[in-house]
Amino acid sequence: MAARKILTFAIMDAPYESARSTTALRLIDLALRRGCDVNVFAYEGAVAVPFAKQQPHPNAVHGRSVEEEDHPNPKDWVGALMAEAKKRGLTFNWVQCGLCVDERGATEWIEGPRRGSPADFWKFVEASDNTLVIPTK
Amino acid sequence: MDRYLLIESLDPFESNDVERYQTLGASLARAGHQVTLFLVQNGVLAARPGARSGPLTALAERRVEVLADEFSLRERGIAASRLAPGVTPASLDVVIDRLADGWKTLWH
Amino acid sequence: MPKKVLSIVATAYRATLEEQDDTVVWLMHALRGAGAPVDVLLRGNATNYAVKGQDASGLAFGERQQTQPPRVDQDVAKLAANGARVFLVEEDLAERGIERAELITGVESVARAALPTLLAGYDQVWHW
Predict the structure, then answer these.
(1) Are C4 and C121 in contact (CB under 8 A)?
(2) What is the SS3 assignment for C1?
(3) The whole model's pTM is what?
(4) E strands of A3-110, at which residues?
(5) Which residues of B touch A132 (CB under 8 A)?
(6) Among A44, A121, B31, C103, which is least packed by CB within 10 angstroms?
């Protein structure tokens, strides 16, 4: 049986500012669906992706209530990916760059991610089959 | 021979650095490496036959595989039948497969 | 043997005043401190990072002054001084009118045509 692949992603974008955030989640989702273990190093604005205090809102322009808008926040996507990894018996590590967390005050996140540092990113890189850096602009 | 997956998320209408990235792809192919240029997000806006699709067709003629993310195409209403010569729609799975297979993967 | 990585830095002066650093150059220092043999290729606007004598001092809002402005040229020079190879794309310098005499020491220029050979020497290439 072929060994399970391990992929590491470094992401930098805060949610809601760039299409890169969603593409990154699409890639993580696909990696999990293809049976890979996944590591994520969230750097800079990306530490806000799993921020626990994100809340949905109604959409008056479209005349939709909160329930009708049914708008998952990025933290919900991350939570769903964590659940998917668990269901499939895969490892999904999400490390938040600690200094980036501190300077943004983004100190509360959903269950799953943990605080870390560039040293953790390097450990991920060394332990992975490959790494993709998705930079911000 | 190395294998390179160059992911292009930017479009040449907004960024003239796209041309430089394409040049890198061409030079890697010329040096004998296997190269795929994968257009994603607004990168697919250059994929219709138009003012900036010529370089993509030229890359394909120089043995660079030029792929465009199917979801990004659909999101922008670009039909697969309307792509410039040499550009092929593809699933984002290609990125995961190539990463897992050890391709050197760069995101622009 | 640790993986050999080339970090290509293309974006320049994005949030450098807010951060008091270029956060990718900073990350390269941190990674090298963690034992990562990362080298750097500056391309595009980031080639300007190698211009010596940059001065971002003096930022102040009301009574609050910035006392530690970013010193990106010095940070890049320190990378080179600490053993990283720091490359610049020479055509990108020329296009921006940057002359060799303006550059910090320790950087190596490389022609665009030589990039395939450069990249081939690394296990991974990251583009920032």
Answers:
(1) yes
(2) coil
(3) 0.97
(4) 6-11, 37-42, 92-97
(5) 95, 99, 105, 107
(6) B31
Does residue A1 belong to any structural domain of this protein? no
Q: Which CATH superfamily is domain B3-107 in?
A: DsrEFH-like (3.40.1260.10)
Cα–Cα dist B100/A34, whole Å = 10
Number of domains in chain A: 1
Q: What is the pLDDT of residues B27-86, one digit of tens each?
A: 999 999 999 999 999 999 999 999 999 999 999 999 999 999 999 999 999 999 999 999
Instruction: Name the residue of chain C whose CA is nearest to A135's CA.
Output: C128
Helix axes A19-33, A74-87, angle to 10 degrees: 10
Question: Could you tell me which chain B residue has the CA closest to the CA of C114?
Answer: B27
Q: Is B40 on the interface with A (CB under 8 A)?
A: yes
Compute how many other C-beta atoms are within 10 angstroms of the C-beta atom of residue B91: 13
CATH classification at residue A109: 3.40.1260.10
In angstroms, the CA B79 to CA B73 distance is 7
Rounded Cα gap, residues C69 and A100, in angstroms: 18
Separation between Cα atoms, residue A10 and residue A21, nearest integer Å: 11
Token pair recorded at residue B64: 């660079």
d(CA A89, CA B64): 37
Q: Reply yes or no on whether the pLDDT at A3 is more than 90.
A: no
**What is the crossing angle of helices A19-33 and B93-100, to 10°?**
60
| Residue labelled with tokens 């970090």 | C7
Residues B11/B45, Cβ–Cβ less than 8 Å = yes
- CB-based contact B66:B21 (threshold 8 Å): no
Strands (E) across A12-60 are located at 37-42
Q: Which CATH number fits domain C5-127: 2.60.40.10, 3.40.1260.10, 3.40.50.200, 3.30.1540.10?
A: 3.40.1260.10
Task: Identify the closest residue of chain B to C7 by CA–CA distance.
Answer: B106
DSSP B33-71: -EEEEEE-GGGGGG-SSSTTTHHHHHHHHTTEEEEEEHH
Which residues of chain C make contact with A135, given a CB cutoff of 8 A? 11, 24, 127-128
